[in-house]
Amino acid sequence: MKVFVGFGSGFLILLLLLTLAPRPISERLTTLHGDGLRLVEVYERIARDPRPIDIAFIGTSHTVTGIDDRGIEETLARAGVRANVANLGMVFRGRDMHLFLTKRLLASKTPQLIVLEVNEHEPPYGHLLMPYVASASDMFCCRFWADLNFSQMFLLFLKEQLYGTLSMLWPPAPLSAGPPHASEYGWDPIDRTWDAQTPHNPSLGDRLENLVGGGPRAAAYKLASSFGNQTVRQIVDLAHSSHVKIIFLYLPEYNYAADPRPENIRFYNDMGPVLVPPQNVVANRLNWGDFAHLNKNGAVKLVPHLSAAIADYLVGVHGAFPTKE
Q1: Which one, 57, 193, 205, 317, has least CB within 10 Å?
Q2: How confident is the model at residue 222 (pLDDT cuts 50, 70, 90)?
Q3: For the segment 113-161, what is each residue's pLDDT rounded down to a tens digit?
């Protein structure tokens, strides 16, 4: 019995040490590839690019493809508003990543506005890339017990911690090419037009709605939204504690964007303004690259609406930004 207790105690201590082992973010970022290189670029823009960020768009791939940050910045400038705009969208969903980016943004820059993307519901799981870049505090900062994939993500985190610890003891051979440098702007437009006849794999929610209607799907989303809702509140509280304004941008997939329902944004309305894209843009299939993402044409058409709304909010209402003389 003592042997088992001793082994268990030693294992727990080893697990704790591995969890808390410090790893520099630069070393963590070198482990990313594929879609993860987008995170490297976003982090470079936040932490290493000397240009300020006055307006930051944070969200999923809907933001990556749908927000023309250069276009918004130039449109604001023509209206007399000086502001550096950055598209910090990340592929995949997971509010813990948005909290991670918000923390780094507030630590490195002095933004005046964060525009946080919202969809028709909050995902009940964390971001797939968090175990590769998170510290222990990042992994446990949210209500992880409500994160449906936390156990899987924590095991991956431990594996990355082990890899990083071993790499510090026995450094691997240097790579021939380093991580990509930040692009001047973060918009990654889609040039194609959505062919609505092209089939796509329906989600679990789609299949549920096809079988029993929309009511059970909405109820399931509400029950599973605790993790996302709690993390959104943390993002809002963190922004407000740094005297940064935050608004929400309703940017879901086509079926929800073309038929907006008040219940989908009620939760966010209690915390701040919600920008809803104009129907003449999001209800037109020609403005979509696929069922979930605006194409280049749709993103460009969204620029005047977003720019005007942001200018009204920051200048007309709050007088936050300087205007041209």
Answers
A1: 317
A2: low
A3: 999 999 988 988 899 999 999 988 888 876 555 677 888 888 989 888 8
Amino acid found at 222? K
Angle at 138 between CA 135 and CA 142, to 5 degrees: 155
CA angle 90, 92, 95 (to 5 degrees): 80
Q: What fold characterizes domain 23-171+179-317?
A: Rossmann fold (3.40.50)
Q: Please report how many Cα atoms fall inside a 13 Å half-sphere around the Cα of residue 230, on the Cβ side.
A: 17
Domains of the chain: which residue ranges?
Answer: 23-171+179-317
- Taking the complete model, does pTM exceed 0.85, yes or no? yes
pLDDT at 207 over 70: no
CB 291 within 8 A of CB 62: no
In terms of pLDDT, which residue wins out, 26 or 90?
90
- The answer to whether 45 touches 75, Cβ cutoff 8 Å, is no
Distance CA 76, CA 71 (A): 9
**Residues 274-311, buried b or exposed e (16+ Cβ, 10 A)?**
bbbbeeebbeeeebbbbebbbbbbbbbbbbeebbebbb
The H-assigned helical ranges of 242-295 are 254-257, 262-269, 279-282
Query: Measured between alpha carbons, how far is 65 from 285 in angstroms, rounded to an integer?
Result: 15
Q: Is the dihedral of CA 64, 70, 75, 81 positive or negative?
A: positive
Check residue 323 and report its DSSP letter: B
Dist CA 217 CA 201 (whole Å): 17
